[in-house]
Amino acid sequence: MPPKQPPQRGPTPQVAYGYVPHAPGAHPVHGQALQGVVWMPAPIPPPNCPPGLEYLSQIDQMIIQQKIELVEIIIGFETSNRYEVKNAWGQRIYFAAEDTDCCTRLCCGMDRPFTIKIMDNVGQEVIELQRPLRCSSCCFPCCLQELEVHAPPGTPVGYIKQTWDPCLPKFTIQNELHQDVLKITGPCIACSFCEDVHFEVLSLDEQTAVGRISKHWTGIVKELFTDTDNFGIQFPLDLDVKIKAVMLGAAFLVDFMFFEAGGGGGQRMGVWG
Hints:
Layout: H1 13-16, E1 33-34, E2 37-38, E3 61-66, H2 70-75, E4 82-86, E5 92-99, H3 102-108, E6 114-119, E7 125-131, E8 146-150, E9 156-163, E10 170-175, E11 180-185, E12 197-202, E13 209-216, H4 220-225, E14 230-234, H5 241-259
Antiparallel strand pairs: 1-2, 3-4, 3-14, 4-5, 5-6, 6-7, 7-8, 8-9, 9-10, 10-11, 11-12, 12-13, 13-14
């Protein structure tokens, strides 16, 4: 009798998203590049910190860089978005990948529901963002945008909820108990042509600036011929790491609402759609 062949295994979820984690024992150290990528060294986790969020305790800003998808450039076919999340020194903190099917992307466009899986340097999923199908227009205040942030997956740590306003894009950041923590206010016209677009993170009374989410202008070629967006997030160094993770989720929600190309190839300019 011939020897029994071992079962064939498909690619891991991380590989399927286009991400290849580091091999065990090959964790990067400070300043060391592995496969062309320099990872942020893992700090000592603070008390009561969800696993994977210890990186956020050491930084006061993040940079989100969307990966260029050649398929989208060549044939205009909408693919799942992928991102790198880096610190101010260019060290990668996380890799993020959108998990949606082709039909949802084509039919719903920038309004599509999604799950974004955010992984650390060994491919461990540490944050999960869940966006249900909602309306983005202020004409329908009963069905506005929201996003749920889990860290780790299955454990909610906060929420972003769009607040109705006839002119400005506004959001409320909530903690895991659905208690309001911060406010976000964007410009009346969210147009990124030739300049950055800023969404201010404010105290609950909207009188004190706490941080900022900025969509960066990347140049005429990238803006016109690709669907890639770069974002910067600023927040206090001593802000709760869970709220920092929620602000990261808010940046993704803002990207999809206003800067992701819609079904007709255009972007949404404001709350009126």
